[in-house]
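In this section we walk through a basic example: taking a raw amino acid sequence and producing a predicted 3D structure, encoded as discrete structure tokens. The instruction is simple. Fold the sequence below.
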Amino acid sequence: MVTWRGEGTDRLEQVRLHVTGERIKAYGRIIAAATDEHEAFSASYELVTNDDGVTKRLSVHLLRASGETQLAITRDGEHNWLIQTPEGTERGEFNGAEDVDLALSPMFNALPIRRKRLHEGGAETDVPVVYLYLPAGTVEPATLHYTPGPDAIGVVSPIVTSSLTVDADGFVVDYVGLATRV
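The resulting token sequence is shown next.
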């Protein structure tokens, strides 16, 4: 079990991780109070990767004051993504993405960090992702940029430019401006 507390906001994320080699199964929840930028919400998720650490499936149950939504993001054997939302189903390759990223979640950064060995001094890299914005529940292609350094990994995402520190397994300890592990 890993828990992060949001910086400068009332937000928590807790996740139960099952890690076998590069494979990750994660069962988590983000709970956030209302801010000037968004309404209060709770997002529970289940993530499954394959043996190489590439995302196979993300299921999200999103509760907001304005309503409830369920989303499913699945990667098929032909490397296409199937995105199921209340508005319908979209199929696409999302710029070759192998990862999903859930906005406001430090946990999802572990996917490319571990697979590309960025916590062990890997090279600077752009990572295309299927990006799920919270609490809106919208899904769009995005690119994250990671720059490994001696003490931290720089990250540029659709919502923040920051740096993060990780543990020996590649999971975020501190995501400056976003969250800190409790």
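Looking at the output, two observations stand out. Residues 81 and 92 are 5 Å apart (CA to CA). The mean pLDDT is 94. In the next section we compare this with other chains.
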